Amino acid sequence: MAAHASIEAITARIVERSRPHREAYLARVRGAISRGPHRSVLSCGNLAHGFAACSPSDKAGLAGDVTPNIGIITAYNDMLSAHQPFETYPQIIRDAAREAGGIAQVAGGVPAMCDGVTQGQPGMELSLFSRDAIAMAAGIGLSHNMFDAAVYLGVCDKIVPGLMIAAMTFGHLPAIFIPAGPMTTGLPNDEKSRIRQLYAEGKVGRDELLEAESKSYHGPGTCTFYGTANSNQMLMEIMGFHLPGASFINPGTPLRDALTKEATKRALAITALGNEFTPAGEMIDERSIVNGVVGLHATGGSTNHTLHLVAMARAAGIHLTWQDISELSDVVPLLARVYPNGLADVNHFHAAGGMGFLIKQLLKGGLLHDDVRTVFGHGLEAYTIEAKLGENGTVARQPIPDESGDPKVLARMEAPFQSNGGLKMLTGNIGKAVIKISAVKPERHIVEAPAMVFQDQQALQDAFKDGRLNRDFVAVVRFQGPKANGMPELHRLTPPLGVLQDRGYKVALLTDGRMSGASGKVPAAIHVTPEACDGGAIARIRDGDMIRLDAVKGTLEVLVDAAEFAARPLAEADLEANEFGMGRELFAPFRRNAGPADQGGSVFFS
C-alpha cells in the first residue's frame, strides 16, 4: 500500500463508501467472464455475419474459440489533429495481431468533437454529453460479442472518458488504450495567450489572431498545452491503461508505431485465452482511481476531471467525490509546470523525464499505490522508465534517471513547485464548486467583490467591450450547467477577465458552467452545484451582492443576510434559444436527465 497515511485513509474511505456498488459491479463482470469466450455462444448465422468480410484465414480463426480477436474502437476523423493519426492504426493493429497469432477487427467508430473548434459556438453545448454518447457508441460496437479484448483509439477531452466508461461497462474484456501523441511544438503558448488578450482589447486584428492560432495548432497530434486531452493521456498511463512510456510520443514516428504494435500484442496476451488474463473491470479498483487523482494534482491537470473521473469511477462501481479529490490535493505537491501552469508544453515535459520521472517521484514520496494491476502486469514500478526505439523496430525501455532533465518543468519530490495540487473544492451558501489555483498567484486566492450577474458569456463580453467592467467584481455567469444548456466551456471569458486583472482590478468568475483544463490565472469557481436551472442558490444572486471566494479556506459565500437570501425568488432564464440548432434538439433528453456536476454531469449516474 502507499506509505502516506492520508492517501491510505482516503482510499479506505472510498473503498467503504463504494462497497455495495463495487461488489454488485464485480459480480456482473465475473458472471460475464464465467461464460467464457463469447463467440462460442453465437449461432452459426450470427458468426457468419460477424466474419463475412474477413480473409479466409481470419474466418478460420474466428470459427473456433481458440484464436483471440481484438475489437478496435476508434475515434478517428481527419478534422481533429489529435485523432487524424488514427487513420492508419487499424491496419497496423491487424498486421501486428496476425503476427502474434490473433485477429483484430474494427468493432465500431465513435464521435470525436473538438472543444477548440466549437469554443463559444452552439456546438459546444453538445460537448459534455458527447462523452456519454461516445460510451454508448462504443457499447454498440462491442455488443456484437465477437471479441476477447478491446483496444481504444482516442485522445481528447470527452473521448477518453467516454471510452473509459465503455471499457468499464464491458469490464469482462481486457482493455488497452492506444494514444496518438502530441503535435510537435509550435508557437509558445504564452505568446498565443498574449495575442488573444491583445485581440480582446482591439489592439490586433483577426488576421494576426488567426496567424498566431495557426502557428500554435499546426499539425497532427494533441494540442501541446496541458488541458484535458493531455491530462487524459497522463491518467491512462498512471492508471495502467497505457503501456509504459506511451503517452507523449509524437505521431508519425517509428517509436509511435512500435508502441502501437506492442500494445496490440499485449492485448492478445492478456485475454482469457492466455495465461495473464486481465479483465479491465477487475484491473481497475479504488487504488487505481486514487492514483489517477494523485497524478492529476501532481501535474496541475484539467478541472474537467472533477466531472470525468467521478463518472469514470462510477462506471466501475466506485464512488469518488469532490471532497476526496480536494483532500488528495492537500497532500500531493505540484511537480510539473506545463502551460497554463508554466511556460513549457507537453513536449518539454516529456523531454524533462515525462511520465516515467513523475511516477518515480510520486512512488518515492509514498503518494501512489504501487500494488495495482496494469495492462503491463503488476505494479507501477514498471512505469518508471523511458521508452526508446530498440532493435528491429521494437520498444526498448531503460530506467528513468533520478534527476529531472529540466527542473523548471519537472521537479523532484524534495523541491516541488508548490506544496499542494491546487485543485480544491469550495463550499458555502452558494453550493459546491471547484477551483484550480495552480496558475493563480497567491495574492489572488481570496477575492471579495460585488457580483455582476450575466446569463451567458456573450453578455459579459458585450459589457467588457462597452467599458462597463473596469472595476472590482465577481462575474456570476449562470444557467450554464448540464440541465440548462449542456454545460459548455466558457473560455471566451478568459481573455477579457485576464485583461481586467492585468489592469489591476480584483476579478473572479463564479459559474455553474465549465472552464476546462486551460483555466488559468483568473480565480474561477466553476461547476457550481446545484446549478441555476436545478434550483441552485446561484440563481438568487443579484447585482451588487458581495461575494467572497476564499481558495485558502475553501469557502464560497454570498455575504447577504441568510433569511433574506433564502426568501429571494429564483431567477429564471429563457433557454429556448439553446434548444435547437447544431444538433442541440437531439440532446434534449440528455439535458432533461443529466445528473449534477458533482456526480459527473452524466445521464448514467444521476
Automatic annotation (TrEMBL):
The Dihydroxy-acid/6-phosphogluconate dehydratase N-terminal domain, residue ranges: 68-381
The keyword Lyase is assigned to this record: yes
Domain (Dihydroxy-acid/6-phosphogluconate dehydratase C-terminal): residue spans on this chain: 408-600
Enzyme class: lyase
Pfam families: ILV_EDD_C, ILVD_EDD_N
Coiled coil (residue ranges): none
Alphabetical list of PROSITE patterns matching this protein: ILVD_EDD_1, ILVD_EDD_2
Enzyme Commission code: 4.2.1.12
Catalyzed chemical reaction(s): 6-phospho-D-gluconate = 2-dehydro-3-deoxy-6-phospho-D-gluconate + H2O
The protein's annotated pathway: Carbohydrate metabolism; Entner-Doudoroff pathway
Keyword Iron-sulfur found: yes
Taxonomy, superkingdom: Bacteria
Gene3D superfamilies according to UniProt: IlvD/EDD C-terminal domain-like
UniProt cofactor note: Binds 1 [4Fe-4S] cluster.
Cofactor needs: [4Fe-4S] cluster
Binding-site positions, [4Fe-4S] cluster: 156, 223
Family: Belongs to the IlvD/Edd family.
Protein's job: Catalyzes the dehydration of 6-phospho-D-gluconate to 2-dehydro-3-deoxy-6-phospho-D-gluconate.
HAMAP family: Edd (MF_02094)
Protein name per the record: Phosphogluconate dehydratase
Native species: Pseudorhizobium pelagicum
Taxonomic classification: Bacteria, Pseudomonadati, Pseudomonadota, Alphaproteobacteria, Hyphomicrobiales
